[in-house]
Amino acid sequence: MNQEKMSYFKVATRILAASFKAAPLWIIADSMGMILSSSSYVLIVHALQNMFDTITHAIQNGANFTSLLITIFITVAVLIFNELMNAVCNFLAGPTALRIRGAYREKIHKKVSKLTALDFENAETLDCIQKAKEGADNGIQLYHSVSTLLTFYGPYFVIMAIYFYNLRPVLVWSIFLMFVPLLISQIVKEKVYTKLIDESAPIERKVNYYENEMYKKEYIKETRLLGIYSFIRSKYEKELKLFCSKRWDSVKKVQMIEIGLRALTLMGYFGVIVLFVSSLINGYITIGAFAAVFSSVNIMISFMDDAVSNYLGDMLGIYGSLRSLVHFLDLPEEDGVDDDINYSEGINISNVSFKYPNSNIYALENISLHISDGETIAVVGENGAGKTTLVKIISGILMPTSGDILINDASISSYSKKSRFKYVSGIVQKFGKYKMLLKDNVHLSYPDNPIDEEKVKLALYSADFNLDSEKITSGLSTMLSRDFGGLDLSGGEWQRIALARGIYKNSKFIILDEPTSAIDPIEESLIYKKFRDIAKDKIAIIVTHRLGATQIADRIVVLDNGKIVETGTHEQLLNSGGKYSVMFKTQAKWYSDMKT
Amino acid sequence: MKNFSEYIHIINKYSPKESVLITTIFILSGFCPIVTIIFVTDFINLAFYSAGMGTINSKIYFDVAAIILLYGYNLMLPAFQKLISEKAKINIRKKYKSILLEKCSKLEYYYLENAESWNLISRVLDKPENIIVGNYTAMNQIFATSISVIGLISIIIAQAWWAAIIIVVSCVPLFYLSIKSGKANYKAKIDSSELERKCEYYSEILSDRENVDERSIFGFTEMVNSEYRKIYNKAFKIKVSTRFKWFIKTKLGGVFTALAALIVIVALLNPLLAGSISMGMFISLVNAILSLKSNLSWGLSFQIDTITSGIEYMKDIKNFMSYEERLHALDTPVVQDKITSIEFKSVSFSYPGTDTQILKNVSFLLEGGKQYALVGPNGVGKTTIIKLLTGLYTNYDGEILINGKELRKYSFNEIKGFFSAVYQDFSRHEFTFKENIAIGNIEMMNTSYIDEAVDKAISQIELESLIENLPYGLNTNLGKIHKDGIDLSGGEWQRVALARAIISRSPVRILDEPTASLDPINENRIYELFSKISHDIMTILISHRLASTKIADEILVFNEGKLVEKGDFESLMNLKGHYCQMFEQQRSWYQ
């Protein structure tokens, strides 16, 4: 993945443009608020100067009480205006960021749906998605930094510089006196900080792990029975001690540097004060101007600090993840034509081989097979023989490394994703346990059509899911999973829902990849009988460990090490005495009456 | 208020030095504005004077130095504060969190299985050091702000007492409002957090690897995405309206200080014109009020928010501390030499806080040296029996007799001595390979016999070839938390768990569906192996695969919380009851 070539400017422009598109009104309002807020800070200085000068004048030359009161009221009004503007732009930053974030997320989700399933076998892609999500959050940061610098700090310092220049040109230097130490600080931090902070992190992971061993549900049953608390505790304490000392070391170093850098800032402050005091004493500026500036120096320095170390620093720090985001959005997408696939000629698998990325071994080698319309195929073989991979390739989830899948003489890869799966349904090995309503869990398989509750019920019934159980408190609208206040289901119940999901979708081609792995064998046989109905008039592929269940298939395909070693009906294979018959006899032996 | 002082108590006890330091630096910072007023007054008066005279009074240098020093103190304060707080956090993590952790490890088991108490436990153990130090700091900050405000007001009292009174009186509703909206804020946070979790979850469905197959086949991205948008917008509304209220509250403080400035300025105008206070004093007072402004409008709101949720947290801690503990929960097992019998006499059981009876009047007798299998559909109480036997729950009705003595009359560490177990959800301990096995017999672990015992378990479970491939052999760290750690596959971890069980000297061995994810051929291989090495002790096996249960001397069949059949394989088949029916059903596939 070639990420290096994009320039910061290009990345930033794209992100900023996308941000603006996501929330234009909020962004405009936010920027207006910031401009007003920043000018209100300058107004305060003006108002204070005016007030102090008027009062000084009054002391020296006798008072005009009304004009005094007016300047005071103006000052206070400016103060209140400043508070309000400050509130407005700080408030607006929140919803603006949320809007942008939501839009980015949706964009990422859509993009993910356009990637191929093969991409997900690649650790780099997963990493990329993770980084893109971080990038989305940092995109907000970028927007915020840029807009704050442009519409808040920028105008503020420019106007302040003009103000200073008008007071006395040499005073403009005071801006540099504040800026330079902070800039140096920022450079030092960039260089030294990042290295220091991370030292204790890997040890902290260990500490957290041992903490979990002491009390988390997944460990405590065993921890208790084995009586190994003290053992874990001593490991925990050893790592904790190490962690604490490492952590303290890094914090100490970092804060010591920080203190040193702040001393630098203090010198800047000193310089500014000297500059202004000498101007005052030499009579270049009025007492009012001096007092007004003096009361704003703190704010100016803290603004400068914010602008340099937070905003400017952040903008540079997040470049990496922003680039990931842009890179992710630019990943190649699947294409293909939209067309109604006609299964009447069956599916032709021609010389297909498949290799997972980063693997040297072929998961499938030279597979050729023709499946007729309406046929039910069972795929058997030991763990790791390539059964699931084969099913994923035939159904179009994965694309073969070489060879082709032809439907109606057209390669499956020439169809768009949408048409490829239009009539495909089933249950995959990694079926989802969606934390949603029961009915939504089923409806997910047919999302482009409005939900049909009767059909949902029928699908659940076909999958042998017990809707009348007392724990299904709200019927189809029962929330599933504890996380969102719903109920917990057993693995078997979840699998039945997944099955119902597969049944609910109108399909012409159905895949059943170990559809009963989490269901008691006791009830398993009942469900297998139903598969006959489910698979009727469709192309069906069943993957199963339970060799006895293959009898519902028209044909059995035996896989071994990625190759088809046998095909045939149950009887044919049993008689041929090959791999299938050996496996079948081993399993059947256990059910003979003889005690082993 | 009591919950409040609890924080002070904790930090004083576990990090006394740092607590004093934190308070000291904040008291000093509280006095800073007042001292600043004094020097600034003097400085401006002198500067004013010098400007008038055209000569410089050298005392002005002293004032400038003092002002810079004071500013420096404020500038350095965050760094010092960070340093001290970090030390305090480390101390509290070391000393106080360990207490919480130990308490949690000792709890009665049902607290860990109950969703509500588990949530509380998770909250309590989630970085208590940050919450405690954070709250203590917030209290000190409020204290410091109070000192500044009181100091400022006393200066004003001397000039115009009535202005001071107006300011003090109008302070009261401001504080009240702050605290009240702090609470509302806390509630709103909880409301939106569920929606937020939901959004995160939907985002996960739409972008993770686990769901890629169904996402492709069913193409539900658009539908879930629009659901995501709906929930996101709902959370958006709550958050924005909360934020809006928070800003009103916060900025009320700011507007208030601006008005206070107005009162002070007007009040001081007369004394200023009359010459009873200097221009310097006037300017420095105005400055002091302005710098307090940001403190009051941002800081105070934030600190009150921290404290409001801090009070809730302390309530959680108190609740947690009142949870009952299981005696001997942390002790090592007291090895029991022999098992002659385990007998259930009319045992009934419901999980605490629920009404459903999981076990209904169950009676049976198990004898030493035999192998037993518990079978039946999911959720009929097989695993519950194991939980009762291993002493995790003791609130059953009826009697469970071990070697003729009621289970509840044994101490917990004696009960532990009877059993070793491999669960379906066995733990994957990220220790070394050797430790992973050796902890199965913790008593022996520190003796010289352990090496031999581990070697024996390894050869029995046939783990040699796996170890050969590990970089440091037996001393290789397993799992992902160690830099040089090696993660095993699911099946390999499973075999390590089995080795852990067989190294134990306990007379009863329990296998609770430890092989559910294996294919039938491999499962059978494991059980045959196990029965071979367990011939002289009692084993209790739970499995769905009926063929695997044939090796048992006796099979106990459960249905709906009751024991329905019991006997060896042949007698159950002859009985033609549940077991036979289930077995025939499975067998029918192979005919």
TrEMBL record, chain A:
Location(s), subcellular: Cell membrane
Membrane protein topology class: Multi-pass membrane protein
Single GO MF descriptor: ATP binding
Domain (ABC transmembrane type-1) ranges: 34-311
Transmembrane segments annotated in the record for this chain: 23-48, 68-93, 142-164, 170-188, 283-303
Domain annotation ABC transporter: ranges: 347-586
GO CC, alphabetical: plasma membrane
Keywords for the protein's UniProt record, in alphabetical order: ATP-binding, Membrane, Nucleotide-binding, Transmembrane, Transmembrane helix
Protein name, entry field: ABC transporter ATP-binding protein
Origin species: Sedimentibacter hydroxybenzoicus DSM 7310
Automatic annotation (TrEMBL), chain B:
Ranges annotated as spanning the membrane: 20-40, 60-80, 133-155, 161-179, 246-266
Alphabetic keyword roster: ATP-binding, Membrane, Nucleotide-binding, Transmembrane, Transmembrane helix
Main location: membrane
GO function terms (MF aspect): ABC-type transporter activity; ATP binding; ATP hydrolysis activity; ATPase-coupled lipid transmembrane transporter activity
Residue ranges annotated for the ABC transmembrane type-1 domain, each copy included: 20-308
Ranges for domain ABC transporter: 342-585
Membrane disposition: Multi-pass membrane protein
GO CC term, one of those recorded: plasma membrane
Domain of life, source organism: Bacteria
SMART domains cross-referenced by the UniProt entry: AAA
Subcellular location: Cell membrane
Descriptive protein name: ABC transporter ATP-binding protein
Organism the protein comes from: Sedimentibacter hydroxybenzoicus DSM 7310
